[in-house]
Amino acid sequence: xxxxxxxxxxxxxHVSSIHSDxxxxxxxxxxxxxxxxxLVVLDDNRLVGMFxxxxxxxxxxxxxxxxxxxxxxxxxxxxxxxxxxxxxxDEARGVMKNRRIRHxxxxxxxxxxxxxxxxxxxxxxxxxxxxxxxxxxxxYIYGHV
Length: 145
Known about the structure:
CBS-domain, alpha+beta, single chain
């Protein structure tokens, strides 16, 4: 059964992050620059939250806050669901579905950040696996083994 480790070994472990003291404006610029929908919030290399497009819409725009004056710590998601490298992809997908989230930090047993997976990563892995299965079945059926 495929695990989160399989995705990280393919995608890498780099995670875009920001400090909780940064402004929402700085965070939004970083997200736009990197073309991503979420940043991990780290203080002293410790995971303290997630900052996502949804946080901007619900906690900044909808509340008419000034992005240049609002700090990430004041509007980030503080209760962060995480997974471990040995978490199965089905379990990770279930957590994302049930919590209605699109990003899942990967941590070790000491809660050190090891990477980040997204629903897009899960979908890409599933698509690749299905394409490989189709290719193998095609070879089997038509005798090109």
